[in-house]
Amino acid sequence: MHDSTELAVSARNISRYFGDLKAVDEVNLRIEKGTVYGFLGPNGSGKSTTIRMLCGLLIPSSGTIEVMGLKVPQQVDRLRAAIGYMTQRFSLYTDLTIRENLRFIASIYGLNRTAANARIDELLVTYNLSERAAQLAGTLSGGQKQRLALAAAVMHKPKMLFLDEPTSAVDPENRRDFWENLFDLSAAGTTILVSTHLMDEAERCHRLAILSAGRIVADGIPHELTAELSGQTLGITTPRPRRLRDVLLEQGAVRSAAQVGNQLRVLVEAGSNNAINAIRDIMQAHDLSGEVAAVAPNLEDVFVVSTSQSQRQ
Amino acid sequence: MKSLHRILAVLYKELLQLGRDRLTFGMIIGIPLMQMLLFGFAINTDIRNLQAAYVDLSNTSASRQLVAEIQASQIVGFNTILSSSEQLQQGIRSGDINIGVYIPADFERRLQQPDRALAQVLVNGSDPTVVSVANQIAMFPFESRTGSVVSLAPRPIEVRVFYNPERRSSIFIVPGLIGVILTFTMILFTAVAIVRERERGNLELLITTPVANLELMVGKVVPYVIIGLIQTSIILVLGKWLFGLPIRGDLFDFYIAALAFIAASLTLGLMISTVTKSQFQAMQMTMFVLLPSILLSGFMFPFEGMPWAAQWIAETLPLTHFIRLSRGILLRGAELLELWDQLLILIGFAILALAIATRRFSKQLD
Ligand SMILES: Nc1ncnc2c1ncn2[C@@H]1O[C@H](COP(=O)(O)OP(=O)(O)OP(=O)(O)O)[C@@H](O)[C@H]1O
Ligand SMILES: [Mg+2]
Fold first, then answer.
1. How far is it, in rounded angstroms, from Cα A286 to Cα B145?
2. Does A85 touch chain B (CB under 8 A)?
3. Cis previous bond, B302, omega within 30
4. Any chain B CB within 8 A of the CB of A109?
5. Are the beta carbons of B201 and A109 separated by less than 8 Å?
6. pTM
7. What is the pLDDT of residues A134-180, one digit of tens each?
């Protein structure tokens, strides 16, 4: 595989307890330099806790971490200038203006006055905050706050960026711009670890790890993860989707059935050969009508499959 | 150099926030003003015209002279003349009077017998300040017309008051009050300062930046040093203007002492902020320090009268040492060098507290 100098993050068997709760469970991570790496997982799955451990904010209960070739938390003081962290909760000063916040961050990172002013002006333009530079951060909208937080996190041009749900309050259109910004940074050589619970966002990442209950239940390149499920996802157009759903969920081979508009999206077990015909037979037996067709699997399906697999183990 | 740069960044940010926080800014001026007026005027430990009655069974010129002299002291006001000891007791029980003076029928004869009590002072002992007044009356030096000086008490003690001959308590209170107000505001402001960043989530970001613990602490504390000095000046000016506070010592000496005390209080506040998890906890901890400071430092009650355990606790409180410095310099005109040990204790306290706070403040979230 790769030489360890090619890795921005390498974590081996890290776990973290909060009292009796195992928030992170034996997580292994290898993130290559220059990639945009996604953490996909529902609330409480341990995304933030893992990121905090990687930044040296929390000490792992067990396991070892290296970020940019430095041991965390032992050598974290040397690491600080090389990483940027955008917290899930807005953590800049609400009673300072955008410009004052950025100026504070710039001086903390040792930028002198002229360098700081130039960099701040550049960031204000990049993140579309120029007109609001004199507005108090506390009065910004959720999406504006997150753009400000990203601007602050990249102030010192870090080699490694940790972004904890950076777009949770951003509307779809601005989210696209936000991701364009991320890929610009990535193209410039920045490694980015970004957590999200949105499937469409996760799909954009170079690589992805799916977390559930503190464990990585699947990881890989998004379209490869979905490709593994081809043939297992079906779409059924039916006048009685609720009834059909109840019937199908009683079948052992059906993993999940979720309604999407008028359609019922059905995920069947791997190895169920000719799933389409099998479903048709079941529908006939229950006197239900409808059109069955294969559909392309998405990350949600991957998530459902891998979490149910991990629960069975 | 880089370090100084970061300290200045924190300091500038703190000043910006302070300038925007109207309420805190108001408290900086408001607290000294309010406390000054409250303590200076309302809490007046001088006792004047306490309700009193007397019984004079001897009814001689000497006994009438005694009554007149006690009356002239203005400590008590005789508003009733009663005829028996029982009536005096009745009056005290009902609360009509706080003090009763009983002059027995053989008063003249007792004057010639120095080992016998001249008269009796009955006191409502449920109020300690009244007791102390009664003691003053008991010590009353009485010079009878015959020329011999005797006291009402078996052993005559003359109470003489130095440095505050008028016995005005407000003068005595102001030097201590400076310390009390500084204790309150300095500890509270800094205790809340770091906890607030933790509560609002700012700390999670700060921790991942290169700013070091000590840099953060120093940057956050320095603005409050300036505030402390402003408060000191407000109280000094008000004290002089409203209560005629004398400044007998060197003003420069006094400011040095105040600076050391401010440093000790601020670092104590920092220490509190590193062990508390919320602003509310920080406020409670501040009260936990403030209360013994007010009660034990010698601000309210004389230090010498306290049991040794209380004295020992008091010695660990910065306020105790500052009050000694402040009364010494302002009221007695002492030089700072004469009180060097007190100053040294304050400086030592500040260094120790800063060291503990810096160590305790972990760059972790939990
Ligand atoms: N400081 C803490 N003390 C106790 N429990 C904690 C602490 N921090 C996190 N947890 C618990 O650890 C688990 C993982 O939390 P974490 O914040 O990492 O989840 P997350 O994946 O970031 O979720 P979300 O999408 O809601 O942000 C949760 O069950 C949470 O309650
Ligand atoms: Mg989270």
1. 127
2. yes
3. no
4. yes
5. no
6. 0.79
7. 999 999 999 999 999 999 999 999 999 999 999 988 888 888 889 99
Rounded to an integer, what distance in angstroms lies between the CA atom of residue B188 and that of residue B194? 11
Q: Read off φ and ψ for residue B52, nearest 5 degrees.
A: -145, 165
Burial class of residue B148 in the structure, from the number of CB atoms within 10 Å of its CB (0-12 exposed, 13-18 middle, 19+ buried):
exposed
Encode pLDDT of A183-225 as tens digits: 999 999 999 999 998 888 999 999 999 999 999 999 999 999 9
Q: What distances in angstroms separate CA A195 from CA A9, A45, A64, A201, B107, one per listed residue?
A: 15, 11, 21, 9, 96
A164 near A88, Cβ under 8 Å? Answer: yes
Work out which ligand 1 atom sits closest to the CA atom of A41: 21
**Residues near A5 by beta carbon (within 8 Å), at least 6 away in sequence:** A69
**DSSP E strands: which ranges in A35-189?**
36-40, 62-67, 70-72, 83-86, 160-164
> Is the CB of residue A54 below 6 angstroms from any atom belonging to ligand 1?
no
List the domain boundaries for chain B: 50-162, 169-360
Q: Break chain A down into helix, strand, coil percent, rounded to 5.
A: 40, 30, 30
Q: Which of B254, B255, B232, B236 is nearest to B244 (CA)?
A: B236
In angstroms, what is the span from residue B87 Cα to ligand 2's centroid? 79
Distance from C-alpha of B282 to C-alpha of B291, rounded to nearest angstrom: 14
Phi, psi of A217 (to 5 degrees): -95, -15
C-alpha distances in Å from residue B167, one per residue of A19, B160, B302, B316, B325: 61, 10, 15, 29, 20
Please count the other Cβ atoms lying within 10 Å of the Cβ belonging to residue A20: 5
Q: Which residue has the tokens 């080992």?
A: B115
Q: In DSSP terms, which residues pair with B247 in a beta bridge?
A: none
CATH node for B50-162: 3.40.1710.10
* Minimum distance, in Å, between the CA of residue B254 and any CA atom of chain A: 36
Nearest CA distance, B8 vs chain A (angstrom): 9
Q: Is A100 on the interface with B (CB under 8 A)?
A: yes
Residues, chain B = 366
Neighboring chain B residues of A90 at a CB cutoff of 8 Å: 201
Residue type, B192: V
CB contact A209 to B (< 8 Å): no
Separation between Cα atoms, residue A183 and residue B188, nearest integer Å: 46
Distance from CA of A63 to the nearest CA of B (A): 17
